[in-house]
Specification:
By secondary structure, the chain is an alpha/beta fold. The chain has three domains: 142 residues, 3-Layer(aba) Sandwich (Rossmann fold); 181 residues, Dihydrodipicolinate Reductase, domain 2, CATH 3.30.360; 60 residues, no CATH class. It is 36% helix and 20% strand. The strands form two sheets. A nine-stranded mixed beta sheet has the order 14-13-12-11-7-10-9-8-15. Strand 4, helix 4 and strand 5 form a beta-alpha-beta unit. Helix 4 runs parallel beside helix 5, helix 6 runs parallel beside helix 9 and helix 9 crosses helix 13. It comes from Gottfriedia endophytica. One of its GO terms (molecular function) is nucleotide binding. Pfam families: GFO_IDH_MocA, GFO_IDH_MocA_C. Belongs to the Gfo/Idh/MocA family.
């Protein structure tokens, strides 16, 4: 399969581009569009893309006749809508990074356009493809614990992950990217909707940016970690600790296209990742709770928090005949039946990021393109529905009111009609 890439950042380069390097007999990248020259050249050279197929802007790529079967769009959140709409018109099969768009009505328009043109558009809600969550879905669907009644679900972001991505990094400011519940936790809203299998009726949410702000800066701290900060050596968020090392792994390898220590040092001295976590321009929440009511009276209590030592999701799914608990980083699912029986499951694993989900979604996408299958586990229409839950949660958090999903979507569509 021949493919083009828009956005050669971390996801484009490592999650999906690396698959093509491992399996060149399955997929080959023939074009790339990326405004950052260093990232563009790094990707192009890795995939042997000729000079005339290296574009600085996505518009240059999409103004040409269709170059190949597939297009992967991994640009920043607010740079999804225009290229994906153009790519649908051009006839590409599309793999689109989440979120589809930070703007609710744009998400609905993407879904409508994909349906209208019968486009294969797979949204990177990759967790549905992870063997761990595939196994969990199969257990829930077998109704071994009867009918699901309530769920407790936690997303433990990890203190260092939050500091890297949501305080210093690309997703720190909702006006530049997306609200936290959409950018990070749309995975969770999507998986909950998928597992429960019915419509979400209403949402209420609370959360705020509590800790990562100027008033909590320790005495002796400076704007940058290497500006003579007196507490840098003991600070758990020290940029020197996380980025000035010889490990070619995330997050150290995410701050510069060049992995050398000299390049990383320059980024820390001049770029956003060298800033003190208490002196950034971040505004996304560092903790949030969401309560969801689904059809059949199924209730969900979801918690997202930055303040955990490790990065993982854990949950308890409670049914009429038993309960399922699990921890994805431990690859452990436990079923406790009310009869007293217990069952422990360790799902099969697959190599690749997100517990093998990055690999599995590429396998499925390539298969769909080759077989001309227009359907997808995370199609635009399916993903738009779970996006609406995240948008409604943010609406509730900001307004302090409970939000009805049907009313929320109806209002969006009415607003669009009034504008037109």
């Amino acid at each position: 399969m021949k493919a083009a890439l828009i956005g050669a950042g971390s996801r484009g380069f490592y999650a999906y581009g690396s698959y093509a390097l491992q399996y060149p007999h399955e997929i080959q990248f023939v074009a790339v569009a990326e405004p950052n020259k260093e990232k563009r050249e790094k990707f192009a050279e890795a995939h042997h893309i000729p000079e005339n197929m290296r574009f600085e802007d996505w518009t240059e790529l999409l103004e040409k006749e269709q170059l190949c079967e597939a297009l992967l769009i991994c640009s920043p959140d607010r740079a999804h809508y225009k290229p994906v709409m153009k790519a649908i018109e051009k006839g590409y099969s599309i793999l689109l990074e989440k979120p589809m768009s930070p703007v609710p009505i744009e998400t609905l328009e993407i879904a409508e356009a994909a349906e209208k043109h019968n486009t294969l558009l797979t949204v990177c809600h990759v967790m549905r493809y992870a063997p761990f969550y595939q196994a969990l879905k199969e257990i829930v669907d077998r109704k071994v614990i009867g009918e699901v009644v309530s769920i407790q679900w936690n997303e433990n972001v990890g203190y260092y992950h939050h500091a890297h991505s949501f305080v210093r990094g690309n997703w720190r400011n909702s006006s530049e990217s997306s609200p936290m519940i959409l950018q990070k936790s749309c995975h969770d809203m999507d998986m909950l909707a998928w597992l429960i299998g019915t419509e979400c009726k209403s949402v209420s949410s609370y959360g705020s940016l509590t800790y990562f702000k100027k008033e909590n800066a320790p005495k002796g701290s400076t704007y940058r970690c290497l500006d003579g900060c007196k507490v840098e050596k003991e600070c758990p968020y020290s940029a020197a600790k996380w980025y000035l090392n010889d490990r070619d792994v995330w997050p150290a390898n995410a701050i510069s296209a060049n992995a050398s220590l000299e390049s990383r040092l320059k980024e820390i001295q001049e770029g956003p990742y060298g800033r003190c976590v208490y002196h950034c321009d971040n505004d996304v929440v560092d903790h949030q709770v969401v309560n969801l009511l689904f059809e059949n009276d199924v209730t969900v209590a979801f918690t997202m928090t930055a303040f955990t030592n490790e990065i993982f999701r854990d949950f308890k799914i409670m049914g009429t005949k038993g309960e399922i608990s699990g921890n994805d980083v431990k690859n452990k699912i436990e079923i406790n039946y009310f009869s007293g029986q217990k069952e422990m499951i360790n799902p099969a694993t697959v190599n690749g990021g997100h517990m093998g989900a990055d690999t599995s979604i590429m396998v499925d996408f390539i298969r769909s393109v080759n077989e001309k299958d227009r359907g997808s586990l995370t199609s635009a229409s399916v993903s738009a529905q779970s996006h609406m839950i995240a948008y409604a949660a943010e609406e509730s958090r900001v307004s302090g009111a409970m939000v009805s999903l049907k009313d929320y979507v109806k209002k969006l569509k009415m607003t669009k009609e009034e504008v037109l």
